[in-house]
Write a structure and sequence with these properties.
heterodimer; A: 180 residues; alpha+beta; two-stranded antiparallel ribbon; 4 helices; B: 352 residues; alpha/beta; 5-stranded mixed β-sheet; 17 helices
Chain lengths: 180, 352
Amino acid sequence: MNTQNQILPMARHDRLVIEELGDELLIYDTTNDRAHTLNRTAAQVWKLCDGKRSVSALAILAAKQLHQPISDQTVWYALEKLGEFQLLVEPVRVPQAMAGISRREFLTKFAVAAAVVPVVKTLRIPATVDGVSCGGSGSPCSSAGPIKITKGKRNAPSGSLPCCNPLICCAGTCLDPASC
Amino acid sequence: MHSRAIAATLSGSWRTDPPSFSLSERTFERIVPLLIESGAGSLAWWRLSHSNFKDSESVAELENTYRSQRLLAKVNVQRLETIIRALQDDGINPLLVKGWSLARLYPELALRPIGDVDLFLHPDEYALADSLVRSLNSKIPVDLHAISHARKNTTQLDGATLEELNARCQRVPLGDVTVRILAPEDQLRLVCLHFLRHGAWRPLWLCDIAVALETRPTDFDWKLVLGKNPQADWIACALGAAHQLLGARVEDTPAATRSQNLPRWLIPTILARWENPNPRLYDYPEPISSAWRSPSKLARAPIQRWRDPIRATVRMGGAFDESPRFFYQLTDFLSRGTRFLNRKHQVMDRAE
């Protein structure tokens, strides 16, 4: 029996916050505070990973849902990416021919349409001055260091917010008074 | 001017169907980082999505901001729910102000970052709430405000006591819990005063004023906002600024006349702040205790502490009239300098 058919990937849901945005999935991993985006194909494969379906079954079902041909290789590619971003309960060992393959190699080797290629990537969360009016525990605080005002350029000052009550600024970090 | 472009971009952006607009690509590229850094990126994207802007790196950046804000909104609501539930389980029912209570007024939560959590409490509840919040170790900063029943401790609230706020508060669902938030009148008053008290640096806060104004209920009591209180004219001027800079609708409000007759220094001051909307430039200067070691930093220290006309006027309890602001700015500067020296004196006395 083909051992690859015994691989039954399962999507991880524990401590993930999921938001659907059109065909895309946005996922926030609260274990490491990282955010990811999954395109249509990757999202569909992930949703179908219930721990009971083989890769071939996933390919067939995904093709049905997406109304596009989805090969086993496309599913393997998706699974490897999902595993890299810790979105599976356990990472899956992909076939040798697929291991570590780049997107370009995948497109070339398996003649897959670009629109079908599963994409999982980090969602960059902009560092905003988002109106946080005080620093939480561990945040840099007002004695942290200089505010850089560079002539002719927009400044990029170091954090210098006051600490949220009842934290205090201790050596440049907002801390519980008992810890200072 | 970047600030005018920022105002143009954010005009009407809080509406479900914002008006379309256009801007030169070059100007747009310059203001996108400012919009994102000041927390208005997602709102700008909302406006863009209803206009004909061709794809570009700047547009993609705003879209990315919107997407990340959309996800963060969901995450932060869960965190907020956990905090509120924990407090309520121990018999504490705080008033949630700003943040989420404002974000919920927008067409989508994702349009306005939630930031930190501001909770108003009775002083008797403070110690327990503090202990609970610390034990939760939440990733969203929580700022507890003990609001006494005495009118004197209500600088943020323009004389309203906690009892009055509680009596008027709304109870709204937040996930599986019900949370108390300010009544629309108290909320509008708070956001106007907050905007001015912080020198109007953040464009998003003017959008908050606009959305709080335009989503007010039909039974909104203007007497609670512009009635007999010392800061009524300040509030009217904040509403006027929202009208003149962002097109907020004031026609059917008691602030309509004042909105057309703002002091000449007000709008230019706001626009000057919006050229580089970052509070760390002005609000949180480096402490003198660390600056004094460097002559250049020490030389900059007074400049950093010279307040803008808005904050100086508010701090000195002045009028928003046509008189020169220099008097308020100088008085504010000298009074703070005097307090600083007195504190140093006391520290030195204690050390001896």
